[in-house]
C-alpha cells in the first residue's frame, strides 16, 4: 500500500518506485494508506480500491510527476503551452474516470 504524503508541490505517493501526484481533486489526504498500481509503459497510476471496485479498475487515476513535466514545458515553450498541456492531461483523466464509472454502472 502506498502512503499519501505532502511536500511543497502538494500530495504525492510512491507507487511501484514512481512518484505520483493527482491531476484532479482527490478524496485522499496526507497519511492515508491507498492501494496503487502503476500501469507499465505509461504515466498512469490507479489509486484506491474498495469492495465494489472491479479488478483492474481504481477509484482515481494519478500520474507520474506531472508537475515536473509542466515546469519543463513552461521553461521551454512558455506558460500558455504548459497550461494547455495540463488541461489536456486533466481532460484525459476526467474522461477515463467517467468511462470507468459508466462501465461499472452498466454492471
Give the SSE map:
Elements: E1 2-3, E2 5-7, E3 10-15, E4 18-22, E5 33-34, E6 36-38, E7 44-47, E8 60-64, H1 66-77, H2 79-106
Antiparallel strand pairs: 1-5, 2-3, 3-4, 4-8, 6-7, 7-8
**Molecular shape:** globular
Proportion of residues in extended strands: 25-35%
Biggest pleated sheet: 6 strands, antiparallel
Termini separation comes to: 27 Å
Helix content: 25-40%
Task: Summarize the structure in words.
Helices cover 37% and strands 28% of the residues. It is built from 2 helices and 8 strands. It has one domain (2-106). Strand 3 and strand 4 form a beta hairpin. With 107 residues, the chain is of the alpha+beta class.
In brief, what are we looking at here?
The protein is an alpha+beta fold. The chain has helices at residues 66-77, 79-106, and strands at residues 2-3, 5-7, 10-15, 18-22, 33-34, 36-38, 44-47, 60-64. 37% of the residues lie in helices and 28% in strands.
Structure characteristics:
107 residues, alpha+beta, 6-stranded antiparallel β-sheet, two-stranded antiparallel sheet, 8 strands, globular
